[in-house]
Amino acid sequence: MTQGHTGSTVTTAPTAVRRNSHITIVSETFPPEINGVANTLRHLCQGLLQRGHQVTVIRPRQRHERKGACAQVGDQLFSAEQVVSGLPLPGYPDLRFGLASAGSLTRRWRRQRPDALYVATQGPLGVAAVTAARRLGIPVSSGFHTNFHAYSRYYGAGWLEKLLCAYGRWFHNRTAITLVPTQKMQQVVSGMGIEPTGLWSRGVDCHRFTPHKRDDALREQWGLKGNDRAVLYVGRLASEKNLQMAAACFERIRSLHPQAKFILVGDGPLRKQLTARHPDYVFCGTRRGEDLARHYASGDIFLFPSKTDTFGNVVTEAMASGLGVVAFDDAAASEHIRQEVNGMKAPLHDDEAFVDNALRLADQPTLLNRIRAQARLDALELNWASQIEQFEQLVFNQPTKANCHAIDNQSVSLL
Fold it and tell me: How many beta carbons lie within 10 A of that of residue 350, not counting itself?
């Protein structure tokens, strides 16, 4: 299977993977935290355990987590866990970056050496892990889960974007392969000078996310009656999610459909500001598990205005829940949305087309119902099992990049 079309990519053959392999996953976010990376790692860990692998997780201590206590994550997600110290991430006090030295990780892995290492985040913990793995010759792969360089422009620090791109290139090129979730993101990452890359997409849990969990009582709580439209957003309430665009879009819908309601599921640094500015919106806060699935299924139109996500798990969750998704032609939508067939997508720089797509769904119930039905059918094809197998092939068959001091010691040049 050839992974992508640009830059240096990796071609994988369906070779056998030893079932009792030991993989260590390093991440500065992990369940029960709620975000796309944590959600992806939950499914990854569960899938690897089910396929007979030993999984060790290394992560920072989470906010409000007592020292010495393990986070409660529901189903068992790992064989062993190491919790390190952490500090709040600027702008995201709920998330933390990890603090661990390469020396301490080197000593740990000399005592108990993993067969492979997967580093999901680019923070200090990830840097230390990659350095230790390279010293020991442990195959190490990385994931490009978050467009941190693109976030800077949403926080008034666009001047940092080139520097963050250079840092990302340096970090990922110290690993044997960088996994990306879409072909479009593969092109972006290759354009940053990161290589080789491998395509590892995402599945969706269609047993949890299903239209059958639609709840009329919940819709009544939202103030809806009969065929009134619930316009839904699920995700972080943060600047990089382009929520101003979502609000503007909803106001256009409401100007034509006064009984429509905007339902926002999630939390984040913009919650207080949005609540003050739009007191008539329905803010549901953070929802998990079956409760989250019920909120999805009780919506009608799903707005995903983000232009910075590498994938956007919420898009496929909304499809599985039978919603009419409106998104930009990027990330998950670029891979899985077919215009006017199972959703609506607009060119990345055409905000007016995004609004027009949403208005069409609000105005044309026949189109909306047809799209919702097809979205559910297409989501049923997006299973996690095949993605876990693909991850195995990409990560367990990698050479090492050990003792590459020329790369380690080179300066980080700006793009």
Answer: 13
CATH number assigned to the domain covering 211-382? 3.40.50.2000
Other beta carbons within 10 Å of 292 = 22
Which range has highest mean pLDDT (271-275, 399-403, 409-413)? 271-275
> What is the torsional sign of CA 63, 69, 70, 74?
negative
Instruction: Please tell me whether residue 328 adopts helix, strand or coil conformation.
Output: strand
pLDDT recorded at residue 19: 72
Q: Where does the chain hold its CATH 3.40.50.2000 domain(s)?
A: 22-203+385-409, 211-382
Whether 411 has a pLDDT exceeding 90, the answer reads no
Q: Which residue is it, tokens 């991430």?
A: 89
Cα of 322 vs its chain's centroid, Å? 20
Closest CA to 164 of 180, 146, 140, 185: 146
The neighbouring-strand residues paired with 92 are 89
List strand residue ranges (DSSP E) for 300-372, in order.
301-304, 324-328, 344-346
Over residues 146-202, the pLDDT tens digits come to 866 455 555 555 557 788 899 999 999 999 999 999 999 999 999 999 999 999 999
DSSP states along 54-66: EEEEEEEPPTTPP
Write down the pTM of the prediction. Answer: 0.89
Write out the two tokens for 287: 């929802």
Q: Please, are residues 41 and 30 in contact by the beta-carbon 8 Å criterion?
A: yes
What does DSSP assign to residue 326?
E
What is the CATH number assigned to the segment(s) 22-203+385-409? 3.40.50.2000
First to last CA, the chain: 31
Of 124 and 150, which is predicted with more confidence?
Answer: 124
